[in-house]
Design a protein that fits this description.
The chain is mostly helical. It folds into two domains: 47-199, no CATH class; 202-361, no CATH class. It has twelve helices and two strands; from the N terminus they run ααααββαααααααα. Strands 1-2 form a two-stranded antiparallel sheet. Strand 1 and strand 2 (136-138) form a beta hairpin. Helix 3 crosses helix 6 (158-199). It starts with a helix and ends with a helix.
Length: 361
């Protein structure tokens, strides 16, 4: 009797203090199995995850502002969602459209000047003396023509064209899908969240609510940290391209570098290639190419190994070494979607354990 009465007295006390009932063995196994099944499922569909992730993250960042505007004005929230979508579409379309136009112009000029450019750079590297290799004597003109012919053969291969065409179509479809999903998430993000919350068993919904209450501000600070990295990438790119290297269109290239920094792997690589093509046209010799290579390496290392881990680590209150590990592990397992999901998943695990352990520190 005494133990029964004591147990009944402890339950209300635990409820009053907000303690979380520990998961029993059956629930623990169910959670582990469900998490494993979700991870395996995401692994098999990782090729289509990127548009969903990008749209969800942008909508998540914009949602508090849309809610606040709707509450203050008492206007329908969907109006602000449409306005936000149009603003994002206009900004992204203007920057990328103008950048693409300038890139096409620069690419045409580079293609026309490429033979003379290769010969000039080769002559600067070798001098006026021919290169003696395997018993053959090759002049700078012959080396440049050989490199140009190999490049044409590589581009003209059926497989190469098919790969380029495939990636181009996938990019176009991905951008279109991202925009469609972004509109739905902006307009009805709360509905999507309620649908996900409904999956949770009713008696565990208070626990999930507490986990999310702990996770939400940390996750928001993390994405704000990513915005800070975008600003850093833009400023650093302008200093490197405009002030030090004196490359044309430095402002546009810097903005493009910052914006593309939000797309892991593909974005920074594309920005480096675009800036490299523009710098190649204005290159005065091998030292110019070497200087651009040093700039690209320093910028990439400073973002990936220094500024990124420190800023994101402080924003998410996670050690920079763990940030680096999460990025690398997520990239190895899931590719680009894994890089995006790595740190948020780590924050989710930490918030869940902290809530279960009752750690409010």
């Amino acid at each position: 009797m005494k133990s029964a009465r004591t147990g009944s007295e402890e339950a209300p006390a635990a409820a009053r203090t907000g303690a979380i009932q520990p998961l029993d063995s059956g629930e623990t196994r169910a959670v582990v199995l469900a998490a494993s099944a979700i991870a395996v499922f995401l692994y098999f569909i990782k090729a289509i995850l990127l548009p969903f992730l990008l749209a969800a993250i942008i909508a998540y960042i914009c949602t508090p502002l849309l809610d606040r505007l709707a509450q203050r004005t008492r206007w329908p929230r969907v109006l602000f969602a449409i306005a936000a979508f149009l603003i994002i579409l206009a900004i992204a379309g203007s920057v990328l459209g103008y950048a693409a136009q300038r890139l096409v112009v620069e690419a045409r000029i580079i293609a026309a000047d490429l033979p003379d450019m290769l010969e000039r750079l080769t002559r600067e590297a070798l001098g006026d003396e021919p290169l003696h290799l395997f018993g053959q004597s090759l002049s700078a003109h012959e080396i440049a023509q050989s490199a140009l012919e190999n490049l044409r053969d590589l581009v003209g291969q059926t497989g190469g064209l098919a790969v380029i065409t495939g990636y181009s179509l996938a990019t176009i479809m991905g951008v279109f899908l991202t925009l469609v999903l972004l509109f739905y998430f902006l307009a009805d993000g709360h509905g999507v969240a309620r649908g996900l919350f409904w999956i949770v068993p009713p008696h565990r919904r208070p626990l999930v609510t507490r986990i999310w209450t702990r996770l939400d501000p940390v996750l928001m600070r993390y994405f704000i940290g990513i915005f800070a990295i975008v600003i850093y990438a833009t400023v650093a790119a302008y200093v490197g391209l405009g002030v030090i290297l004196n490359i044309r269109h430095a402002v546009l290239l810097a903005l493009l570098t910052g914006i593309l920094e939000t797309v892991p792997v593909i974005g920074p690589t594309s920005a480096a290639i675009i800036a490299g093509l523009v710098s190649l046209r204005t290159a005065t010799g091998l030292m110019s190419i070497f200087a651009y290579t040093i700039y690209a390496i320093v910028l990439r290392l400073s973002i990936d190994q220094l500024v990124g881990p420190i800023v994101l680590g402080r924003a998410a209150q996670v050690h920079p070494a763990l940030i680096i590990f999460c990025f690398l592990a997520g990239g190895v397992v899931f590719g680009i979607p894994g890089i995006i999901l790595a740190v948020p998943v780590a924050l989710l695990i930490r918030s869940t354990l902290a809530t279960l352990y009752g750690d409010d520190g």
